[in-house]
Amino acid sequence: MTGTGARYGLAWAIGVLLLANVVGSIDRTALSVLLPQIKQEMHFSDTQLGLLTGLAFSAFYAIFGLPLSRLADRGRRPLLIGVAMGFWSLMTALTGLAQGFWHLMTARMLVAVGEAGGVPAAHSLISELTPEHRRPMALAIHSAGVPLGALIGLAGGGLLADALGWRVSFAVLGVLGLPVALLVLVTLPEPRTRTLVSTRP
């Protein structure tokens, strides 16, 4: 690949991974703005709301981040990111079907499990694709997806909630992630595969 082609390929990969990070942040933060409607419909206590926004996500994200990071060390990272993203997007969409506290709690836990597979593999892939002198900028661009997604999730989630209600809002937000997951699976390279092939005797 020529130098220009390699630069375009790198820019594309970082852009797709940035988009995936934005979507993950949207799915993570939209719950906060949808909580008033959920509380009104299901009559949750403040303790239950705190569990939904805190422990349900953060504990499972931390626990499953370790084995999924280990998998990223050994496996095909675009496959891991794409599958993880498809899973958390589907779990986000299914959150809208919840009929009670434990349904919502389980859905948030499963969203966290999916998202735990995204960032470690993305950081690993960016680090391998990017020349060392450009690596800090590439990682900073990817990390910018978190505040950008939070901004979109809070503003967009509020607009969706007012227009469609919290259940349909979760469905819309979840479905929006599926095309991005497909983009990750179809278009991102796995340089580790090329390295293994080139070093065979």
Write up what this structure looks like:
- By secondary structure, the chain is mostly helical.
- The chain has helices at residues 3-42, 46-53, 55-74, 77-95, 101-116, 119-129, 135-143, 145-164, 166-187, 191-198.
- Helix 1 (3-42) packs across helix 8 (145-164), helix 3 (55-74) packs parallel to helix 5 (101-116) and helix 4 runs antiparallel to helix 9.
- The model is unreliable at 195-201 (pLDDT under 50).
Question: What characteristics describe this protein?
Answer:
single chain, 201 residues, mainly alpha, 10 helices, 0% strand
Structure summary, number of beta strands: 0
The averaged pLDDT comes out at: 88
Radius of gyration: 18 Å
Alpha-beta content class: mainly alpha
- The topology string of helices and strands comes to HHHHHHHHHH
Distance between the termini: 23 Å
**Helix amount:** over 70%
Measured by DSSP, the beta-strand proportion falls in: under 5%
- Helices, by number, come to 10
- In one word, what is the shape? elongated
Main beta sheet, described? none
**Which stretches are low in confidence, meaning pLDDT under 50 for 5 or more residues running?**
195-201
List the helices and strands and how they pair.
Blueprint: H1 3-42, H2 46-53, H3 55-74, H4 77-95, H5 101-116, H6 119-129, H7 135-143, H8 145-164, H9 166-187, H10 191-198
Helix pairs in contact: 1-5, 1-6, 1-7, 1-8, 1-9, 2-5, 3-5, 4-5, 4-6, 4-9, 6-7, 8-9
